[in-house]
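Record type: monomer structure entry
Structure origin: computed from sequence
Chain ID: A
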Amino acid sequence: MRTKLYFALLSFSLICGFNGCASTPDKIVSTNSVAATNDLTAGWKQMKFSYEVQHPYDLQLTNRYSYDAKTDTHDFWVNFTDKPHAPPPNRTTARTEMRLETFNKGEHMFDADYYICPGTFACIGQVFDAAHGPMQMIIASPDGRVTMRGHDLVMTNAIGRWWNLKLINDPSVGGKVKIYANNVLVGTYDSRGPRDYYFKCGVYSRENSNRSEVRVRNIKMWVR
């Protein structure tokens, strides 16, 4: 049975150890030092949020996920051979993903720092239409590229260093989805108008992957 983990991020902490890839540096490395100084959160209000962590249904949460409260870092890992997050008839590929709470009013921004471990081939972030599935899927490939659905480039040389990802979704009529890497706009897409949406982060296995792992820290939700 799927284990759910809900809490207000700013008021709760759970301390676990890390697994998998090598130690990570404390400083975010930016590929664009000028653009990275832009404060994209100006005019936004930070909000508390809740979430659940989806993971292989036959495993304990701690077999595929840990959280370090001292550094505010979530560690997600999964093997392609793992079972999906829900028992049959579910036939999706294996995942360990944070599913953030649903929203349908106000422009929302997911803001977090990522560290992709070598060998990862997985979806690491999603803008999700609750009724009809993912609208945008951020894919990390073993060659170091991060793309939107394997096509539009989001980031290069992304493995083994910290970088920042921001996903914005405006649920209003004519609203847009915007993707930023290190505060540089890398993609703008149509949203789907008023309905329920949510963000996801973690690792959702791609076909022919092996073991995927990503660390995500300083997760923030903004609204305006």
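Annotation 1: The radius of gyration is 16 Å.
Annotation 2: Residues 41 and 162 are 19 Å apart (CA to CA).
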